[in-house]
Target: Methyltransferase domain-containing protein
Amino acid sequence: MKKIALFLAFLFFYTCTECRLYCQPKSYTFDSLQLAAEYDRLSDPQFNQGRELVSLLKIKRADRVLDIGCGTGRLAAYVAGITGKEGKVIGIDPSPFRIAIARRREKSNLLFKVAGTEELSLFEDNSFDVVYLNSVFHWIADRAQAMVEIYRILKPGGKLGIAMGAKHQDSLLVSILRQSAQSVLGYIPKEFDVNEYQREADEALELSRESGFKIKEIKTRHYVDLFRSGEECIRFYEASSGGSLLREFPDFQRKKILSQIEERLERLKTAKGIEIPHNILFLIDEKPK
Model:
């Protein structure tokens, strides 16, 4: 039932992501170019959140920047506009479908590679001014090793930015998920009670200190994302998760649960659409000089 817990974390963190990594290869077994393209169209929530992370990092012209879990590359392309031709932005993501779309955005100062945090050994010591993970941290399998590697590849004085689910969350989506599962299965899987978002936020702070970083800033912001329909909301989740949404259930149960989720979302629709509240934690670390 590990994938259920991962999906619960996805709801809390609103993953997936302008920038996302998958815990294991099987997590994007169901991904496709079509899903990646759909995510690219629907990824405004992560893109807008990412722009705030970039602002907090104070990225400058001529900076060398690494976007870990870059997805289809929207945020990396935005950052490349800030660094200018004197700088360099590299985006990595383990999904070849996301990278296929990202590569359409490549230019002289913007490059994309199919890779995850396990491949950070590709990069030399002290080679980046900024590294960031936008809605990505919770998908990394070995977070401790990833933080050590990020510290290694950052220059002294370089910054790491992490945007992730905050400890205190509105429970709307989780409530809908639990109600839908109860309706279809007749019970609520115990994994739905896992308080993943608080554990992951605490871990990010702890690993920052253990890796040698100096924590420069911690900020929480409340967001309200807007969807035109329950169907669009579900499509966003499906595309963001690389097609792995609720795949641990038999297909007939999965379809029923998704239908229940969509119906409950539709009941929340107003003249503006469906509002989904969530809180994001922004963590800015610095490698000591």
